[in-house]
Structure formats: C-alpha cells, structure tokens
Design brief:
By secondary structure, the protein is α/β, with parallel strands linked by helices. The chain contains five helices and five strands, in the order βαβαβαβαβα. It comes from Flammeovirga pectinis.
Length: 132
C-alpha cells in the first residue's frame, strides 16, 4: 500500500483537527503537515523546491487545499504552484457549491478533484485510490 506525505492547507482550526483525524484513519500517510493559509504553504513549497528528492526533507505528495482562506486563498495558491511548476497533486477542500470555483480549479492539471468539508472517510479513500 502506497503511503503519502500530505500538506493540509486550511485556516479553520476546528476543520483541521477533524480533517487530520480522518486523513490519519486512512492509513495512507507517512507524514502530515499543516499550513494555515496559501501564503505560508507557498513559502514552504518554495523553500523546499531544491530538495524535492531528498528523503530527509518533508515534501508533500498531496496537498489538501481549502478554497476560502485569508491572506492567500486556494485559487491564488494554485496559480503560484503552476507558475513555479511545483510537482504536486492537489485535492481541493470546499464548502462551496459555486460552479465557477470548480471550473477555475480544474483548469490546473495537478488538481485531482474536490472533497466537501467536513471530510468523510469513504470519499477520501476513493479520491486517494484514484490519484495515479
């Protein structure tokens, strides 16, 4: 069974606690790290960019990314990930039902899907199983 390094990017503390529990229950993670907004996530991703093949450095395989956050939202982070050609897979976390949110995010080939918040075990397992 493949295990992944996960970066959770969400500003909602209660949601993060719950999401972390659900993600860990999958048994599919090596490590999980947290950033509270897109700007912090981008800073981290750019800092590790030169170490992507170094096993001693936490490099995320999957980013779980909230759409609505202060400072830098999820859509702005997607734009930066593309601009810097960062090799990650992104699963969007959302409470949004706006079609334009889905359409905008899906413009990026590294966005692999959407999960509604709060996370549910079944949807999460299916999404991770179909990543590759």
């Amino acid at each position: 069974m493949m295990k992944y390094n996960i970066l959770l990017v969400d500003d909602d503390e209660a949601s993060n606690i719950y999401s972390e529990i659900i993600i860990k229950q999958t048994g599919l993670i090596k490590k999980l790290a947290l950033c509270r907004n897109g700007e912090k996530a981008l800073e981290y991703l750019l800092r590790i960019e030169g170490y992507l093949n170094d096993p001693s450095v936490f490099t995320p395989d999957i980013i779980f990314l909230d759409i609505n956050m202060p400072i830098m939202n999820g859509m702005e982070l997607l734009e930066e990930i593309e601009k810097h050609s960062l090799p990650v897979k992104v699963i969007m976390l959302t409470t949004s039902i706006l079609e334009e949110d889905f359409n905008e995010a899906l413009k990026y080939s590294f966005v692999k899907g959407f999960l509604n918040k709060p996370l549910k075990q079944e949807g999460l397992n299916d999404m991770i199983d179909n990543l590759d």
